[in-house]
Amino acid sequence: MASQTEPIDLRVRRRLRDLRAERGLTLAQVAERADLDVSTLSRLESGKRRLTLDHLPGLAAALGVSIDELIGAPPSFDPRVRGEAVRLDGMTLWPLTREGHGAGLTAYKAHISARRNEPPGELGVHAGSDWLYVLSGRLRLVLGDHEHQLEPGEAAEFSTWTPHWFGAVDGPVEVILIVGPDGERVHLHR
User: In terms of Cα–Cα distance, which of 70, 17, 13, 72 is closest to 47?
Assistant: First the structure.
């Protein structure tokens, strides 16, 4: 399939030829159905005559397609993010952004198990920043020598060069987690 970035007139000429061939129709048959001269249709397909908007309805009808199908309109965009959940270290993370997001940031909804309530002996450090927003439960956030408890509706942003860890206080916690590329590698691909 040709790129959606090709000029529309080239795309329509290509689609005219392709659709006519798929349907086993001759130039004469399509020209008659579209109320055009055969020579006009031939010149439209070859690019020797300029295709105008006035030509599209008749050509689409002659080929039995919509105008969108004739011009090869891009398929409608599905905005839903469908990623597999990732489970590790007492957390389940669901992606909220597509892989390869342009800004380099990736968002997740995270469920933190009540069992994830004690930090490891050595806290993690890596390049970047993390952002957390607590949806439900109480989050325990350890940053270096300082500990914080975040309630639903509270957010935290911190440099991940600071030794850090987060977990549950007294039951499961749900958060929105936004990480940069370095944080994603550390948090999801240990």
Answer: 13
